[in-house]
Amino acid sequence: QVQLVESGGGSVQAGGSLRLSCAASGFTISPAAMGWFRQVPGKEREGIAAIGDYGAIRYADSVKGRFTISRDSAKRSLDLQMNNLRPEDTAMYYCAASRWATWAGFSSQSYDYWGQGTQVTVSS
């Protein structure tokens, strides 16, 4: 059974850093297209960082230069290093993976599997 489990969320002050991790299990082949999304209550889920095959990476403008997505295919893990956090980064953060796609970007519908989420709270 495929599972994505996020960890690393927490509470930090503005300017601080957190590193989120997503452990993927149950995949026959390591998924190529993966991404990080976040959601605030009452708002739509937004894609903030995506990684695909051949080194493709994309960031939302709101996090560019502050967040870094990376993965370890051998360990089947996906990380998100978040630096210089701002109060507006406060949200539930989700890891997502596509079963077959080599790139899925920020389209939620392109992802087949989702983690349960990890909360990030940034205080001013």
Model description:
With 124 residues, the protein is mainly β. The chain has strands at 3-7, 10-13, 18-25, 34-39, 46-51, 57-59, 67-72, 77-82, 91-97, 113-114, 118-123. The strands form two sheets. Strands 2, 4, 5, 6, 9, 10 and 11 form a seven-stranded mixed sheet that branches. Strands 1-3-8-7 form a four-stranded antiparallel sheet, with no helix packed on it. Strand 4 and strand 5 form a beta hairpin. The N and C termini lie far apart (40 Å). The mean pLDDT is 95.
- Report helical residue fraction: under 10%
Rg over C-alpha atoms, rounded to the nearest angstrom: 13 Å
Q: Count the strands?
A: 11
- Globular, elongated, flat, extended or rod-shaped: what is the shape? globular
Brief synopsis:
This protein has 124 residues and is an all-beta fold. Helices cover 0% and strands 48% of the residues.
Secondary-structure map with pairings?
Elements: E1 3-7, E2 10-13, E3 18-25, E4 34-39, E5 46-51, E6 57-59, E7 67-72, E8 77-82, E9 91-97, E10 113-114, E11 118-123
Parallel strand pairs: 2-11
Antiparallel strand pairs: 1-3, 3-8, 4-5, 4-9, 5-6, 7-8, 9-10, 9-11
List keywords for this structure.
7-stranded mixed β-sheet; 4-stranded antiparallel β-sheet; mainly beta; 124 residues; single chain; 48% strand
